[in-house]
């Protein structure tokens, strides 16, 4: 069915199954996220798994041409998989046939998704911050593990306040102007670093604004903003559940970059998240020095694809797997990864100089 066609009973069961089977309540695995994607992606669907005629699980996906499927929200979703009753046993290839898919592609499959893990071709660390002990406990840990980082960020915080204006932090900012500014900053950052501008894709832009207006226990858009005086200097938009905050789109004003407003914002968000009852802050897959300093541990996410014998699956393999193999080869070799990032940044600078 289309995500919009799920009944209130379906939504309640999905949420209950997820709470029963998942180690963390990641908002990307909520029914509300699938419904939001369904409003911007025409191929969004949810397969309902039944046992003895009763619903016992949900498999969200997107269907394209030739039955080529992908995880719902692929490209922006940081947690993927199915939500199944623990006593239900499903043959993955039968699930694909029933969903009229020739392939199902994923790049952030969470650990514990045993139905799909045999088809993973790569695994990646997703750093997280454990806040279950409260902010004071976390800050003490940070002071032990990354004392210089914490000290320098606090010093930058004071410099920013002296030079630009008194700091004001809003954990849940509802001003639409702040969201528009964040999107513009992030879009410029993608272009500057030679990466594909996600916000140039209309569906991603629309999805973010839909989620910004979503407010449910399992999935709420959360815009956090840091002001110096009346000036917005850094912002972040992510998704939260009752106990998990997923980092998604952080950015800052480059004109005040010497004062590290992004790092100051991160610390403010962490403190406010702990006060709001967040137990886990998921920083997301990808390398960044600030993540290394802030994390307390790592989760593992997987990429790969489940394929059936079909022309659509063959087309998928030819179009995706060779490039994925190259990316994995480069990412596992630091000297090649550094060179690749330099090429991307050089391409971004050349693109920005074009009239």
UniProtKB/TrEMBL annotation:
Pfam families named in the record: Acetyltransf_6 (PF13480)
Domain BioF2-like acetyltransferase intervals: 151-291
Protein name (database record): Cellulose biosynthesis protein CelD
Organism: Streptomyces subrutilus
């Amino acid at each position: 069915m289309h995500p919009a066609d799920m009944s209130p009973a379906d939504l309640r069961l999905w949420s209950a199954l997820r709470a029963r089977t998942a180690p963390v309540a990641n908002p990307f695995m909520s029914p509300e996220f699938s419904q939001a994607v369904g409003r911007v992606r025409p191929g969004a669907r949810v397969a309902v798994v039944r046992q003895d005629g009763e619903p016992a699980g949900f498999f969200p996906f997107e269907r394209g041409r030739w039955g080529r499927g992908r995880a719902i929200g692929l490209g922006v979703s940081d947690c993927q998989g199915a939500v199944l009753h623990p006593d239900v046993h499903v043959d993955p290839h039968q699930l694909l046939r029933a969903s009229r898919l020739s392939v199902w592609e994923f790049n952030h499959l969470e650990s514990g998704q045993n139905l799909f893990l045999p088809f993973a071709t790569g695994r990646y660390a997703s750093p997280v911050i454990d806040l279950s002990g409260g902010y004071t406990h976390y800050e003490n840990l940070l002071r032990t593990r990354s004392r210089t980082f914490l000290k320098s960020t606090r010093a930058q915080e004071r410099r920013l306040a002296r030079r630009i204006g008194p700091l004001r932090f809003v954990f849940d900012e509802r001003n639409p102007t702040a969201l528009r500014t964040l999107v513009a900053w992030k879009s410029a950052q993608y272009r500057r670093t030679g990466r594909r501008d996600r916000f140039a894709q209309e569906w991603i832009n629309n999805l973010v604004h839909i989620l910004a207006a979503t407010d449910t226990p399992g999935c709420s858009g959360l815009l956090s903003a840091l002001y110096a005086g009346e000036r917005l200097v850094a912002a972040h938009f992510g998704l939260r559940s009752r106990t998990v905050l997923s980092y998604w789109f952080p950015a800052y004003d480059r004109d005040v970059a010497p004062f590290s407003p992004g790092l100051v914002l991160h610390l403010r968000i962490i403190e406010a998240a702990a006060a709001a009852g967040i137990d886990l802050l998921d920083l997301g897959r990808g390398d960044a020095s600030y993540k290394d300093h802030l994390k307390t541990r790592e989760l593992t996410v997987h990429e790969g694809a489940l394929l059936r014998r079909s022309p659509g699956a063959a087309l998928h393999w030819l179009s995706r797997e060779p490039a994925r193999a190259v990316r994995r080869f480069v990412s596992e070799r630091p000297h090649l990864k550094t060179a690749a990032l330099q090429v991307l940044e050089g391409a971004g600078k050349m693109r920005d100089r074009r009239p």
